[in-house]
Structures are given as C-alpha cells and as structure tokens.
Design brief:
This protein is an alpha+beta fold. The protein contains five helices and nine strands.
Length: 189
C-alpha cells in the first residue's frame, strides 16, 4: 500500500488542485516554512497585491531617508494576519531574527530587512508577503489526502524568479502532472 509522506513538509511547496474550492487558494503555490505535529505555516508565493506597493509599505514604517521608487512587489501571503509582513529570501542575508528553512531559503520579519531591501542592501532574492497561510494539527494532512494539494520540492528559480502568473503551472509541470490528468474525484488507491 502506498503511504503519502506528509510528516514534514518544511521547505516544500504546495500546489493547489485545479478543483480547490477555497477561494483564498485558487491556483496558488504555497511555500511551507514550518510543518510540525502542531500544524503548518506557509506563504502564497504567486499572488501579487495590486492595491499596495512597496513604497506604500515603506511610508507606513519608520524607514528614514527613503525616497521611494523601489520596484519590489508585495504578495498576498495568505488569509491570516494580513497586516503582518514576512520576507522569504535567499540565505546570503542572515540577521538575528532570520529563520533558515533550508540551504537556499530563509524567512525574516523585522523592519531591518525591509529597510535593507529599500536601500538595495538586502538579500539577493526576496519575496515580501503580507499575511500567511496556516493549518492546525492534522488539517493540512487531511487536505492533502483529499487531493486539495500537490506537493513538490521547489527550486529558488520557482520561488523568486518565475513570473507570478506562471508559477502555478510551472510548479505543476515540475511534478510531471498536467492539468488534463487531474480528476475531480478524490480518494486513495
């Protein structure tokens, strides 16, 4: 019997099934930063915020001498705590609040990283997310067993450099699954 290994999805990406019913996660790719017996936390990495810019964010923070015009996009990280900011980034930038997820990706949430990004001294690769996606104990595993999510191991190219509007299909393609192969029916063989 095939057993799906969902014991630790930290550092993996979840690709929403094309038949995902939750509107928050329609055609999303979620990078999982923490997955334990107590639940999971991740960030949607392919949904830009259209109504707020980096300059808007910087204006709300105490960033001194910032003149504006930073071309960094902000992302909708998920439906929880939408006013909290997080930065997924490359591990070339490590500060005291940084949590290293794997060899290539870390997450920080201090104003220091936003300031450094604003002045061009931040990490080589970064993705700023407002809010996060969270699951309680066993909730994510149940959603996976119900075929709501497809799991893949991401590369930094997918997380940071693939165009947002192409990430969902690129992640799905990486698994070797085409949209045409997916079924409306859930279950296990």
């Amino acid at each position: 019997m095939f057993e799906l290994n969902t014991t630790n999805l930290t550092g993996k990406c979840l690709i929403s099934s094309p038949f995902m019913e939750d509107e928050h996660f329609n055609k999303t790719v979620v990078y999982i930063c923490s997955h334990t017996k107590d639940g999971a936390i991740g960030f949607i990495i392919n949904k830009k915020l259209e109504n707020i810019s980096f300059d808007d964010l910087a204006a709300q923070l105490p960033i001194e001498h910032y003149a504006g015009s930073c071309p960094v996009a902000l992302h909708n990280g998920g439906p929880s705590e939408k006013i909290r900011g997080f930065v997924l980034h490359s591990t070339d930038y490590i500060k005291s609040d940084t949590v290293i997820i794997d060899r290539q990706i870390a997450v920080s949430s201090s104003i220091d990283i936003i300031t450094d990004i604003a002045f061009g001294t931040g990490p080589k690769d970064n993705l700023i997310a407002l809010g996060y996606a969270g699951w309680g104990p066993g909730q994510l595993e149940k959603e996976i067993m119900n075929n709501s999510w497809i799991i893949t191991t991401p590369e930094t190219e997918l997380v940071f450099r693939t165009k947002d509007e192409e990430k969902w299909e690129a992640a799905l393609h990486k698994t070797g699954i085409s949209v045409d192969q997916l079924s409306f029916y859930s279950g296990r063989a």
